[in-house]
Amino acid sequence: MTETTFKVDNWLIQESYNLFGARRTAAQMFLPGMEPFGPFDLWATLALYSLLDPNNPTDAVETTPTELLETLEFAKTVSEALGGYATFTSEQYGLIEESLHRLYSVKVQLRGFYSVKTGGRGRPSKQWVEYNERILVSYGYIYPPDVTPPEHTRGKRVNVNRTKTTNGDPPPPIWKLTDGPRPVGIRFRLSPDLVEGLQGGRIGTTVFPLQIFKLRPQLINSPIATRLLVWITRQTKRTFSRAIDGLASEINVKGKDSRRTRKTLLDYLALLKDLGIVEGFAAVGDRVTITKADAWHFPRGDKKLASEDTDDDPEGDE
Fold this sequence. Notes:
By secondary structure, the protein is an alpha+beta fold. The chain has eight helices and 16 strands.
């Protein structure tokens, strides 16, 4: 991959704070008020966006679990069984497989008023937008060309999808052959609604540097810091100011003690400064002013507001 950046649809980013929770695992049954996905699922989703063809984002993408683990900066382990060969562990492969199964199986609800680009000149039109579908609209295993795919045969196959859905219904089947060769890869397609921004529609996109994945090992156990990282990356201005309590609400950081919540956000801002994402920040009263580092600032020509026209609106790149 020669590109150094990739784009993510702003609609997905705006809703990500309510979709990807702080649970270390998302394998348990979804309950009302609980985010349907865990922190790793957000990282996996970003990795999927990074593999899209920017000119044809609705096309299916063929890849391998190994490529995804490499993208996500997992460390290989020396395997004695393979004569000292460095490889990923079965637990790591299982982690990425379970996440992809969730993204294909669990329906998400996205709704709200957004300033939507309608194709004509002038300001975007504010419209009510609603989505009740999966993040991945297709997913399956790729077999060698001379092998009949399991979805096209009724024998010697098994449904490997064990995902728990939000309403308790059985998830869509994901078939693997029980005999014969192993899969040589996977094929997925993101929902057309969640890549519309990449095609110039809706509320546009945010540019991410591929180096974001180098931060995953350090931030995977800090979901609030990850949300803050995504939020900061989305801002179109290099220096911007926000009410701290408003920021906490926007990225879905909850707490009974507002002082502790504010301290948590400032502590994570200090962490992001140490990691080189933030050049500096200053808290005065109930507001914080943040300046992005040069490597994390991607100025764009046409800026759009993504939600309500308020002082604390997130801004997204087109």
